[in-house]
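Dig into what follows:
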Amino acid sequence: MIQGGLWGSLGAAPQRLSAVFVAARAHDAMSSRWSGPIGVVRGTRTVVKGDLVRNGATPDVVVDGERREVRINGEPAVLAPVGDLPLNRAYFLA
């Protein structure tokens, strides 16, 4: 398989398409190495699952390695096989 540059990996695209999030103490060191947007994060050590706006659920997850079974809140997590995978490896073949 021959794979070239992927979307947004060439030229100035990474800095224009990406953002870096760092601790306040690392901001100055990062700004000399990264020309794109830099976000400073604060108060992350006190974040708990209940603080998440769209994902505050805390289900009981049990993984049985012998039976190869996963249960979420007592119900088996069963996934049907996928028939079509868009943008899989076949799209990157030369």
